[in-house]
Amino acid sequence: MRVAVVGKGGSGKTTTSAVVARTLARHGHRVVAVDCDSNPTLGISLGLGADDTERLVARREELDEGESEHAPSWDELIDRFGSDAPDGVRLAVVTRIQNPEPG
């Protein structure tokens, strides 16, 4: 299952995403939350903490500035740009996903 949360600024997308992600994970689902927002704060909403969230944002900025390379696979994207959040949620902070793998 894939769930995308979209809407205008300030409508509660980040909060809703965090609640849905943690609820699904608590019920035994494998959850990968992907934060593509220009102001990526999903890590904080998931309970990851400000320092870990900022570390993920810095990695994304390195990629945007050409100081890092894109991940060639989904697993490497999660390893390189992701972190474990509470309740078993895995979070990745990315700008975009190029050439997504099917499935």
Give the gist of this structure.
By secondary structure, this protein is an alpha+beta fold. The protein has four helices and three strands, in the order H-E-H-H-H-E-E.
Low-confidence stretches: none
- For the largest sheet, list the strands in their spatial order: 1-3-2
Strand proportion:
5-15%
In total, the number of strands is 3
Helix- and strand-based class? alpha+beta
Detailed description of the structure:
With 103 residues, the protein is of the alpha+beta class. The chain contains 4 helices and 3 strands, in the order αβαααββ. The protein has helices at residues 13-26, 42-46, 50-64, 74-81; strands spanning 31-35, 82-84, 89-93. A 3-stranded mixed sheet has the order 1-3-2.
Give the helices and strands, then pairings.
Elements: H1 13-26, E1 31-35, H2 42-46, H3 50-64, H4 74-81, E2 82-84, E3 89-93
Parallel strand pairs: 1-3
Antiparallel strand pairs: 2-3
Give me some keywords for this one:
single chain, alpha+beta, three-stranded mixed sheet, 4 helices
